[in-house]
Amino acid sequence: MAYHTGLYLFLFLPAALAAYQMVPQRHRWKILLLFGYLFFYLISGELLLYLLGTTAFTYLAGQWIESAKRKRKRWVLTLGVTVLLGVLEYLKYAPFLVRNLNFLAEKMLGGELFTVQKLLLPVGISFYTLQAVGYLADVYWGKIKAETHPGKLALFLGFFPQIMEGPISMYSQTADQLWEGKALSSADLWNGGARILWGLFKKLVIADRLYIPVRQIFGHYQDYGGLITAAGAVAYTIQLYMEFSGCMDIVIGSGRMFGIRLPENFRQPFASADAAEFWRRWHMSLGGFFRDYVYIPLGGNRKGRARTYLNLMITMVLGGLWHGAGANFILWGALHGAALVVHKIWHRAH
């Protein structure tokens, strides 16, 4: 059930809005959570257990960090993050790792060592796992208190508009809004609906139409010259942006209809003047996560130029890996990291 389908737009979302408005305010969080789990079940079936398990583990780990003595807090945080990322890494990256180990074994030993197993990957696991990691880190740093009500944390991780596509939220950004359960308003319904329509225009009118020539050109690139291939690359870039940003508009619009202000993910990225500004405008919630929970904890730009450049490369390579398990994603992250390093060197020189 994709966000741009009639099933979501004309049945699921209206039913959620109606049920939400009909119940008393103190129970509205339960409606949001119920529809969140129903949505997840409809797209992932029994893999809902992963979301439930992540929620339970994150709740307990947060409580443990809060109650632990000062010297043990870091150890508990490390354990919690390791478990959360370990599940994600196993489900998303184990086949990629096994294939590469088998390739090396075949070259060096003449045979494969492992069997590649096809693992079922829950939809949205990359998004809710990062939100859970961010929550634990914020509890550890004292930015927020560990949540005492498991339902509030469950709703933060399971709000249905953002389960599948993001944006990635910090607990302080959305948890209280989701829990408040304020009544629907005509302004929010109107503004949210307009945002959804704009997203549908991007997705259905622009992205889906561009997909046809892009598929033709890249599927039969040997039949075309350099100019057509270059045009196909530009069309693909526009298609990718319209696809992703259109879906984000639908997601953010859906949240707005409930009175929830989700973080923005795009701010005219192609109007950027340089690589650094581009990453401040493109996939902003993911960029913010990697800045706050990877780049800055690594030392950011506080430990000299060489360390700053290394931190940038590590952050961007991890960002590439987050997008997918493959050498192309690692290369993609490394190239963007190199571009940011070059930008910093150029900026210092001028």
Your description of this structure?
The chain is an all-alpha fold and 350 residues long. Helices cover 75% and strands 0% of the residues. It contains 14 helices and no strands. The chain has helices at residues 6-22, 28-44, 48-67, 70-109, 125-141, 150-158, 160-163, 171-180, 186-219, 226-257, 275-281, 284-298, 305-323, 327-349. It starts with 5 loop residues before the first helix and ends with a helix. 33% of the residues are buried.
Features:
350 residues; mainly alpha
How would a textbook summarize the main sheet?
none
* End-to-end gap: 51 Å
| Percent range of helical residues | over 70%
Which structural class is indicated by helix and strand composition? mainly alpha
Spatial extent as radius of gyration: 22 Å
Low-confidence stretches: none
How large is the share of residues in beta strands?
Answer: under 5%
Rounded mean pLDDT is 90
Shape: globular
Q: Total number of β-strand segments? A: 0
Would you list the SSEs in sequence order as H and E?
HHHHHHHHHHHHHH
Number of helices: 14
Describe the structure concisely for a colleague.
The chain is 75% helix and 0% strand. With 350 residues, it is mainly α. The radius of gyration is 22 Å and the shape is globular.
Furnish the topology, listing elements before pairings.
Elements: H1 6-22, H2 28-44, H3 48-67, H4 70-109, H5 125-141, H6 150-158, H7 160-163, H8 171-180, H9 186-219, H10 226-257, H11 275-281, H12 284-298, H13 305-323, H14 327-349
